[in-house]
Amino acid sequence: MKFPSYTTPRQKLWHYFYRTFCGLVLFFLVAPLIVVLPLSFSTYPFLQFVPEMQFFSFETMSFNFDGYGTRWYKELFGICDETTGATTVCTNRWMIGIKNSLILAVFTTIFASILGTLAALGLSNRHMPFNRAIMALMISPMIVPLIITASGMFFFFAKLNLVGTMTGLVIAHTILGIPFVVITVTASLSGFDNNLLRAASSLGGSPIRNFFKIQAPLIAPGVIAGGLFAFITSFDEVVIVLFVGGPDQYTLPRQMWSGIRNEISPTILAAATILVIFSIVLLGTLEMLRRRSERIRGVTPS
Amino acid sequence: MSDTSTVNSQGQLLTNDGVPLKESLRKSLRRTKIRSFLLILVPLLFILILFVTPIGSLLSRSIDDTSINKVFPRTFAQYEIWADKSTLPSEEMFAAVVSDIRNTHKLPDGDGKVLLGRSGTRMTYEFSGWRSLLLKTVKSATKVDKKSKEEIKPYIWQAPYKEKMIKRDKRWGKLEFWQSLGAMKDPYTMGYYLNAVDLKYDANKNVIQKKEYLRIYKTIWMRTLQVSLIVTLACLFLAYPVAYLLATLPMRTSNLLMICVLMPFWTSLLVRIVAWMIMLQQNGVVNDTLIMILPCFEGTLNLPFIGETFIDLCFGEEDRLPMMYNFTGTIIVMTQVLLPFMILPIYSVMKGIPPSYMRAAQNLGATPTWAFIRVYMPQSVPGIGAGCILVFIVAIGYYITPELVGGKDGLMIGNFAAREMQRTLNWGLGAAIGAILLAAVLILYWVYDRLVGLDNLKMG
Fold first, then answer.
1. B330 near B406, Cβ under 8 Å?
2. Are residues B273 and A260, on separate chains, in Cβ contact within 8 Å?
3. Tens digit of pLDDT for each residue in A167-177?
4. Using one digit for the tens of pLDDT, what is the confidence trace for B38-60?
5. Residue B306 placed within a domain
């Protein structure tokens, strides 16, 4: 770091202090995620670092990876190995959970994207009466405490015989996902030039054709980003699953929930590591979309 | 096209079709309105029917008291004409209770249970003992044949009932039970709301405080506020400098650092909770690190003035801090979880503050600190407001984190609402707590909309 010549020592000191503080805050944000990684490769049934896991010895100056292995990943994927003397029961509950979560999240994403995009398109019309109120209503599922939404839906769905069904969960998660899509699509519509649609109409395009040929490609990044948010919300949601879901809807978060509450085993860390990697991939996708939409809209990425 | 053909006799502009331009514009505006409305219709109905209705019907449970009225119509009619409420009611009232029980003890309620049982539970909330008293009386009033499981008719119990009922259970002879009916006779009750803030009705329907050992919710409400406030302030304290750094660094570096902010935002909440468990538990990473890096000095020192003193400056095994399954754990984990919600709005506001303002201020003679306080900070206030409201809204209704890491003294009101819903099955009370919580959240949501505008809500 090069300081201008007029910087006082106190300013320099302050500068270093400030940078350190920010560094510590950022560390505070990511540290827990980093800790999960090595521990998920432990071969011990504890959620802590045991002395045997010290992989570098200062006395002998040598590496030793005996405490590490893929035991918990095997358990996660239901590959059982009796010789390791597994302390936990070998089940394929995790795989069932992952499968259920994926199915649920995919359907949620589809429905939330469609409904959210429709709403955002309608709301983008400034002359629409009650525009603001409807917008507030569409976003409210994100704001209302989950516990209220969950118990309300439980009683309501019980009357409709939707408790303990996948349909009920998809409906509930779709409602949670809609606000994200509405927000992202509204944001991408705010940069949309309506003259493009007028030009298309004057050239003889039908409204539907205009939408798919002109508007859809331009708001697509917003829709996909919102869809990703909806996906991750559904994939990570546990409260509604606990209230509305039955024993057949054993999702990954629910498995993790009961893992945390009852039988803490490092399998949960293996799942966590995979989820962290998964979220990095999603984050990368989103960043790419953002760049793309900026490029389309002609905003130069600085 | 000449000028004359576009203006009609009243001087209005016309379109090519000869329709006044205003009319034509209004028509096209109406058309776009209708189109927008049709677009919104499906998602709007979806939300209204499947989100607003469930919450509305949940909230209606918090004031609903009709079940008792359905079970005891005659009793309440008699209660109205019970003149002197300081003496036991007359035989007619006892007879009314028995006839009500005989008429209604098999009615089902909407949720697949017996209405009488549910009313009994409800009456017990008002005055303890009602449920068991009713169930006992039902058995005597409607004797069932052991073989055929049919009610024996004519009923074995015959009028007068007063003596028999008091003989069956002394509680029928107690004035307090009869008086407590007064709090239940209306089809709507505020009782659940009072209960949710540790108040109750007395026999004359005055609002009084509950007994000392029965007060629980006031503490929980206070704690919820306390946790939300601490978390909001902690987030602000940590987020502001980071947001400033991100906003002032060159794009390339700040994008890289932004990943650190967005990564936890994108990672499953449960994963983060597990991670914090590893960090904060007794044998966790934080405690291990503290023991490793903190100096350990134990022994006697000859200090000036004081003389020989034994000093224990050791952070050893026995000093491991309890940071998980308690209040501290809830605060730490919630702060980390909600920090991105604070950084992102402040960052997006700071991005829009031109750096030239600071330079101008310094050019005019302000010190860098002064320029920051007087010029930069006031402009970042909208971001601070947005972040604080957002974090507070999310924090106040938190359920998952306190439930998993809160232990006993880290639980918040959301957890107690869930407890009433799932375990004690006092749905009315759970709904009342939920309604108060929802009201608080909606007010803050409205403030947020006024101050910031929902269209400025951004994620990532």
1. yes
2. yes
3. 999 999 999 99
4. 999 999 999 999 999 999 999 99
5. no
How many domains, in total, are found in chain A?
Answer: 1
Q: Do A125 and B51 touch (CB under 8 A)?
A: no
Does residue B263 lie within any of the structural domains? Answer: yes
B260 touches chain A (CB under 8 A): yes
Range of the domain at A109: 94-297
Dist CA B177 CA B160 (whole Å): 20
Task: Tell me the CATH number at A261.
Answer: 1.10.3720.10
Decide if A226 is inside a domain. yes
Contacts of A145 in chain B (CB under 8 A): 396-399, 414, 434, 437-438, 441
Cβ contacts of B38 on chain A, cutoff 8 Å: 122
User: Are B225 and B156 contained in the same domain?
Assistant: no
DSSP helix/strand/coil, B13: strand
- Interface size, chain A vs chain B, as Cβ–Cβ contacts under 8 Å: 264
| CB burial readout A270-281, b (16+ within 10 A) else e | bbbbbbbebbbe
Q: What range defines the domain where residue B265 resides?
A: 217-282+322-456
Number of structural domains in chain B:
3
- Residue A35, chain B, CB below 8 Å: the answer is yes
Distance from CA of B427 to the nearest CA of A (A): 9
Spatial distance between the Cα atoms of A87 and A75, rounded to a whole number of angstroms: 11
User: Tens of pLDDT along B177-204?
Assistant: 888 887 787 888 888 898 888 888 876 7
Is residue A103 assigned to a domain?
yes
Q: CA of B281: which chain A residue's CA is closest?
A: A48
Overall residue count recorded for chain B in this entry? 460
